[in-house]
Amino acid sequence: xxxxxxxxxxxxxxxxxxxxxxxxxxxxxxxxxxxxxxxxxxxxxxxxxxxxxxxxxxxxxxxxxxxxxxxxxxxxxxxxxxxxxxxxxxxxxxxxxxxxxxxxxxxxxxxxxxxxxxxxxxxxxxxxxxxxxxxxxxxxxxxxxxxxxxxxxxxxxxxxxxxxxxxxxxxxxxxxxxxxxxxxxxxxxxxxxxxxxxxxxxxxxxxxxxxxxxxxxxxxxxxxxxxxxxxxxxxxxxxxxxxxxxxxxxxxxxxxxxxxxxxxxxxxxxxxxxxxxxxxxxxxxxxxxxxxxxxxxxxxxxxxxxxxxxxxxxxxxxxxxxxxxxxxxxxxxxxxxxxxxxxxxxxxxxxxxxxxxxx
Amino acid sequence: xxxxxxxxxxxxxxxxxxxxxxxxxxxxxxxxxxxxxxxxxxxxxxxxxxxxxxxxxxxxxxxxxxxxxxxxxxxxxxxxxxxxxxxxxxxxxxxxxxxxxxxxxxxxxxxxxxxxxxxxxxxxxxxxxxxxxxxxxxxxxxxxxxxxxxxxxxxxxxxxxxxxxxxxxxxxxxxxxxxxxxxxxxxxxxxxxxxxxxxxxxxxxxxxxxxxxxxxxxxxxxxxxxxxxxxxxxxxxxxxxxxxxxxxxxxxxxxxxxxxxxxxxxxxxxxxxxxxxxxxxxxxxxxxxxxxxxxxxxxxxxxxxxxxxxxxxxxxxxxxxxxxxxxxxxxxxxxxxxxxxxxxxxxxxxxxxxxxxxx
Lengths: 359, 359
Description:
Helix content of chain A: 40-55%
Largest sheet of chain A: 6 strands, parallel
Radius of gyration of chain A: 20 Å
Strand content of chain A: 5-15%
Distance between the termini of chain A: 37 Å
Order of helices and strands of chain A: HEHEHHEHEHEHEEEHHHHHHHEEH
Oligomer: homodimer
């Protein structure tokens, strides 16, 4: 299937925000509405101005600015914003614009979906992770302590506007967050994308239209086929079962980026797939070598492995107390609902953190 | 339409809970699941035992008991319960049973709908208001301070079990909460029900099957026609625009029951309907006389009227800053989205609280 109709169905537009339907939509549908913009300190500083250029009267919108970072993707943040919305007397016909990365679109999407049983929201992702993944597909949510996305609903923004020029404001570690998801999209569903990305010489090449749009297409097609994650969509969690637990574990003492954690999770989960004879040793070697070129393996103490496994016991995908993973059986194809023994998970983490990765 | 297929479609069963499908559903579908029961101190004391008699192995369920009352229908309560669910490692295939009145089913429904983007829940209403109204129809939610149901989602329980024997544990003011909704259902949609209830000699007559089931039928039919309240369903808000504001206003210093507030709201909104020549003086007189037989008019200071009107400005049904009401144009028929001037609302409150109601 071509990308354009897919994008239109998902209400996603890509381009310079001044030339997208953003301005006309705001002016036509929300001229008399209250407009609330949710941003973080960075996107307020670097991205907000571009929105005002696109739609001048947004200058009168109410800005709510939260501190940046995953540690603010909490119910407390929501609670504060809900109180502000109540005080502004925001109603069912008003609009929230989420301007930011995954934290802002996940949190803001949840805030809007629950306020007065749901008000409209628009997502404007400003990070690569947001553009490739977080800003569309219907998942919204916040964390409870170090359990990721424990609260949330499935609900779609009325539109997502992707303006790649926002990417040039980002530091490299942010780019890597999105890059990990692009690698994942290639590994689970698109061998051509995989062959393309292993050839890149500079990280900035991943902004190129061919890579960017292939990565988007993978997610849109999967989400369209299974919006509520009853089956197929679970393959998008490849690398995330172990990745989320690693991210959660590091959360309290060191900020490990989401994409970094997912990249590590993909190595560990590929190890498991190889161990149970699903994935060939040769492909596993390609995967591990490629990921390690861009992501370092952090040091941990052996005792921390048990703590990481413990966190996995609260994963949303578990069934009857058993940890379940999405596992690739070859590059470009992924299986879901694979129950994994705790021992094998422990073994994969020992391989990841304490071996030389010679396979 | 007959009631039985309507009830089946809405997954509602009425009868002694020991004889309903409750036990078989739990045993067949949730034998290996974690089961969490949300109750308040009263329903734990008076209703919980009946559930164990129906399904013995519920003795091993995790009980979460919250203090009773509208003042606990808050995000804080949800936050505490979510933390407990996280610690219990409750997963997507587990079950929450809400055992209680509207506060428990509204709050518990919201808790379940948002936890891990939605887990299953069953409602077992124990109050008349719960049975007639709150426990089905898809609305879940909690309050923010004295703004009612500011947070919530539309989502249905997998089943609602109505056992009228729970009603015999209730004090009269609780019965009146449900009675107000029965009056509302009659006024907006069912003249036969109205004629039936004006003839009752004892309040307990409203438990009789003919009244009870007609009142249920009104709500089920309206909700089926418009589950997300885009149009018709708004007539169920008759009495609630002003009623919610009165309830919210009293909230901080005196506990005015929801049904009592709605009954007062129905008088004020009927006054408005008469003033704008929609409702005849004769029917208005019947309504006011009947409601006053069962509900007292509380005393307030004149200055409080402005405060009540102020609260209405945050009502979910407002459009472009204008307060909107559902108004009856005759007994048994209701219109929605009626914009009302602030002055007329003020006048209706002065009539309600400061006149002798001679019409």
